[in-house]
Amino acid sequence: MLLADTMAVVFSVLGICLTFPAFWLLLYGLFPGMVLAAAEIAPKKRWLAFLIGLPIVVTITIAAGLASKLPEPIGGLFVIALISISLTLANLGLSGLVLELGRRLRNSGWQPESAKDMLTGSFVLVLSFVLPVVGWFFLLPLAITMGFGIFVRTLFKKKAKA
What we know:
The protein has helices at residues 3-30, 32-41, 46-67, 72-104, 115-129, 134-161. By secondary structure, the chain is mainly alpha-helical.
């Protein structure tokens, strides 16, 4: 492996480790009510979030596969839009899980309900994604699937309250 290959891998991993927490903080800043509602739902019945998210992930994967067969400009743009929007929604639900994780890991000296809770939880979760094989092929897909489930549960909870 050449130095350039090694540096490409290192900086790709570093980029992922920086962009996920930044994205979760952005979603927390843009949609604080949604993220706080997702943080309330996230610790309850995680298996239900996974079971709700699994058919969504399968449906999006099949839809992206079928759309990739469309003529090039339309199919490619549709796949990019579908994946971008769906991953944004999954990360919106996942940011609630990250916030709850950060709350549980909070040091007693920190202020409650701060962005530090989000940063702490996000760095713990992202560093678990970097774990070879288990993080790549188990934890990351599991987290994205749970993110979809938490997002859907949050939507239905908000509708039930209103």
